[in-house]
Each structure stands twice: as structure tokens, then as C-alpha cells.
């Protein structure tokens, strides 16, 4: 029997822009001095399998609108998942009602008109995948089977999954900005468990892309997850010591993410950052740099404009180790007496630049220390910079991996960790909004047995 599948199309940009215009007109009629509205609609298919059996087949269809109105410097916001004209009018009325009871805030309001995007580049973000549920399940089963076939010690599975999502986001405001753009995201993943005696280790792998044709094959993803799980068998604890630590690319992304959180405008104006007032200061080594590239074709964090309609632009966030500026939306910029950087809603493709050393070269440079491939726990204090997280990975001697390691903690302070970065590898992981290779820190405390 065929699996039931809804093929209802996602709305196009013109449909959503008409809803935005309706909301803005209603806000004007109700007396708002300024207004903005965003509408999104997404459809998706997700399947999961485990131990050779289909577990779930899910079809998602999500939609919603958020409206913000301003009466002078008083702000009110409301949202709805019902996009009927009557409900849109009611939602705008609710936002207006809320605004009349909020305190005045001189920093409230729409983005400055001269910051709004005037051209909307086509970033090639939408590549719909008309995969049937049956075919998606076949791929997931093929992926898991490839993982289980890697080694007889792969004895259990957390499952494999395939997902595809496409949607449209439209935004407009009373300054005359009105635009929409589509996007897609597809993924394939697998997680399995290896065992040897009483020991059991888990690992996973995944592939994600805007264009489904750019995904790794199901067999490749499955095989990688199986090989990674087997590689961790025989893990040991190590003693407490201070040694170099090499973060593999997919976990190194987190180190950069903590930096971004510390330089966001909200953290700065709330005085709640370990990098408070750090613009212009040396935060990283003098060879280190981070660039933002919002317009990379097909990239996962690309966007022609931010959540306020502000144009996204290339910028250098860090050059020669020096922090050049903060990550700002309009409100946080005004609180700091600065200009928005087009980052309302987040950053857009941060690129961490190294000096071309491959992964083998990174291991050789470290010589002796801990390679971290997994991090656990939330032991990061964004105010003080204190960093302490559970970790697993591999012990390295003379630039060669000698055995797996588990049940250890890596610790330090992020300000020190950033200054002690010795190298960033060329083994860049592009599966996210932060693109970085492996990151080698000259010294951290590793706490073990």
C-alpha cells in the first residue's frame, strides 16, 4: 500500500506579500505611526527508520504571521497561525491594544530608511525536492543498512532519517519595504551504537544542503556513522592535565558561536558579556580573522535582507585578531549609539580563516594532546567566559591518534582560549551558518580520572 502523501504546494511570495500589505494597511487605519509584519509558510516531509523498520512518516505544514506596531515609541506585538483576513485584522488590533499600555522606549521603531535593502539578490536558496515518502523511507533504510554493515560490532541503532523542507518568508513595513524570498533545506542522518563486551559507544553522521543534489549519498552517510561508532570502541579515561586540545570542525563551530553570543548587541547593552566593550580590542591571535558573507549562493545561512528588511552586506567581524564591531539589529544598535549591521535574526555565513593546514597537519602541529569530537553539557557562562564541558574524542601522541577517550572534561576561560588558538585547519565544515575548520588551542585543562 502506498504511503499517503499530501502534495499541497507552499504559497508563493506574492500571496504572502498581499497578507503583509493587508496587515500594514490595517495598522495604519487603527492609527499606528509605524508598523511591520512578517509572514512565513513552510511545508516538509520527514521520515525515520530504526532497525530496518519505518518508524515515522510526517508531513508538516506550518504558517504564521507576526505583527509589530508603534504608537510613537510605544510598541506592541502579536502573532497568529490563522492567515484569514478576519484573523489578521484581529491580530493587528491586539498589537495596537498592547502598544497603548507599554512604556515609551526611545530606541523602539523601525529600521532607519537608508539601511533598508533596495535590491533583493537571488541567492539560489530554493531547490524543491519532490521525493515521495516511499523513496525517502528507502533512502533512510539504505543509510541505516550501510551503517550496520560496517562492522559486526555495530549492534544497535538510534535510526536514520530523511527530511525535506521548503518555504517562503515575506516581510514588509510602513516605510515602503516589501519583499519575500523562498528557501529549502534537506538532510540525511544516521546514528548507530557499537559494542564490545560491556562497552557501548554511539556516534552519528549527517548531511544537509539547500540543494538535495548536493547531499552525500545515503550509503556514504550510513558508512560514516558506523565507522565513527566503531572507532570509539575501546575508549579510556585519561588523567587530569593541561595539554593542547584540537576541536574537530563540527564541534569547533561551538567555540565561534560562544564568541558571536558575546558580541551580540543584546549581550553588550545588557552588560552581560565576557567581551564587554571589546570592539577594537585584540581578542584572537594576530593572524586570525572572521568574515561574514551573507550572499553566498545556496549557503545555509544566506539571506538578502535581515528580519527588519535591512540589507545584508559582506563585512569583516575580526581582522588580525581584532574585533571590529558587534552583531547588531536596529534596537540594540540604538541602545549602544551605533548603526545596525543587518543582523536582526542572526549572523549570515561566518567564515573562520586558517592558514591552509590540513587535518593531518593539525594533528602534527598539536603533537601530543586531546582531539575532541563530541561535547556534552551546557557549562558555558556567557558573562564570565568560564568554559567547562564534557568531552569525548581521541588521545594523540607524536601527531598520531593512539586511542579513543571518553568521560573527560575540557575547561578554561573563553578569553584565554581565544588568545591561545594556535591554528585553524583547512578541513572546513560547511553544514551550518558558521564555517570553520578544526581549531587547535595551545593549552586547556583536561580533567579525567
Helical run tally: 9
Main sheet summary? 6 strands, antiparallel
Instruction: Tell me what the CATH architecture of the largest domain is.
Output: 2-Layer Sandwich
Q: What's the helical proportion of residues?
A: 10-25%
Name given to the CATH homologous superfamily of the largest domain:
PmbA/TldD superfamily
Oligomer: single chain
Which stretches of 5+ consecutive residues score pLDDT under 50?
Answer: 1-8
Indicate the overall shape: globular
What order do the SSEs take from the amino end to the carboxyl end, as H and E? HEEEHHEEEHEHHEEEHEHEEEHEEE
CATH topology of the largest domain: PmbA/TldD fold
* Domains, number: 2
Beta percentage is 35-45%
Total strands:
17
Measured distance between first and last alpha carbons: 55 Å
Amino acid at each position: 500500500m502506498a504511503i499517503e502523501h499530501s502534495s499541497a504546494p507552499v504559497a508563493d511570495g506574492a500571496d504572502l506579500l498581499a497578507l503583509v500589505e493587508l496587515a500594514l494597511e490595517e495598522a495604519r487605519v487603527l492609527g499606528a505611526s509605524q508598523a511591520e509584519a512578517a509572514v512565513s509558510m513552510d511545508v516538509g516531509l520527514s521520515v525515520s527508520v530504526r532497525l530496518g523498520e519505518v518508524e515515522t512518516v510526517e508531513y508538516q505544514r506550518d504558517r504564521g504571521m507576526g505583527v509589530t506596531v508603534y504608537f510613537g515609541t510605544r510598541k506592541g506585538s502579536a502573532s497568529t497561525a490563522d492567515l484569514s483576513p478576519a484573523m489578521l485584522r484581529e491580530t493587528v488590533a491586539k498589537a495596537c491594544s498592547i502598544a497603548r499600555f507599554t512604556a515609551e522606549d526611545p530606541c523602539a521603531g523601525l529600521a532607519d530608511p537608508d539601511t533598508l535593502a533596495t535590491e533583493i539578490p537571488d541567492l539560489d536558496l530554493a531547490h524543491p525536492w519532490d521525493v515521495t515518502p516511499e523513496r525517502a523511507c528507502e533512502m533512510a533504510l539504505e543509510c541505516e543498512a550501510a551503517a550496520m554493515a560496517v562492522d559486526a560490532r555495530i549492534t544497535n541503532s538510534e535510526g536514520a532519517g530523511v527530511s525535506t523542507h521548503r518555504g517562503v518568508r515575506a516581510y514588509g513595513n510602513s516605510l515602503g519595504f516589501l519583499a519575500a524570498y523562498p528557501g529549502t533545506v534537506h538532510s540525511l542522518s544516521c546514528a548507530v551504537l557499537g559494542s564490545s563486551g560491556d562497552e557501548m559507544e554511539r556516534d552519528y553522521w549527517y548531511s544537509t544542503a539547500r540543494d538535495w543534489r548536493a547531499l552525500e549519498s545515503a550509503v556514504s552517510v550510513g558508512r560514516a556513522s558506523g565507522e565513527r561508532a566503531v572507532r570509539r570502541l575501546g575508549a579510556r579515561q585519561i588523567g587530569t592535565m593541561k595539554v593542547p586540545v584540537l576541536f574537530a570542525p563540527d564541534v569547533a563551530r561551538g567555540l565561534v558561536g560562544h564568541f558571536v553570543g558575546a558580541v551580540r548587541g543584546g549581550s553588550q547593552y545588557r552588560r552581560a558579556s565576557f567581551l564587554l566593550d571589546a570592539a577594537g580590542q585584540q581578542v584572537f591571535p594576530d593572524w586570525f580573522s572572521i568574515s561574514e558573507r551573507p550572499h553566498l549562493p545556496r549557503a545555509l545561512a544566506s539571506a538578502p535582507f535581515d528580519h527588519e528588511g535591512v540589507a545584508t552586506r559582506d563585512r569583516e567581524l575580526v581582522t588580525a585578531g581584532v574585533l571590529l564591531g558587534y552583531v547588531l539589529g536596529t534596537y540594540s544598535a540604538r541602545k549602544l549609539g551605533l548603526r545596525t549591521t543587518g543582523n536582526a535574526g542572526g549572523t549570515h555565513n561566518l567564515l573562520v580563516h586558517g592558514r591552509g593546514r590540513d587535518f593531518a597537519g593539525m594533528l602534527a602541529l598539536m603533537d601530543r594532546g586531546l582531539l575532541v569530537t563530541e561535547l556534552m553539557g551546557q557549562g558555558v557562562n556567557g558573562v564570565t567566559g568560564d568554559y567547562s564541558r564534557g568531552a569525548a574524542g581521541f588521545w594523540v601522541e607524536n601527531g598520531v591518534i593512539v586511542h579513543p577517550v571518553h568521560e573527560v572534561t575540557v575547561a578554561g576561560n573563553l578569553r584565554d582560549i581565544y588568545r591561545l588558538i594556535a591554528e585553524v585547519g583547512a578541513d572546513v565544515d560547511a553544514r551550518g551558518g558558521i564555517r570553520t575548520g578544526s581549531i587547535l588551542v595551545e593549552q586547556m585543562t583536561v580533567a579525567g580520572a
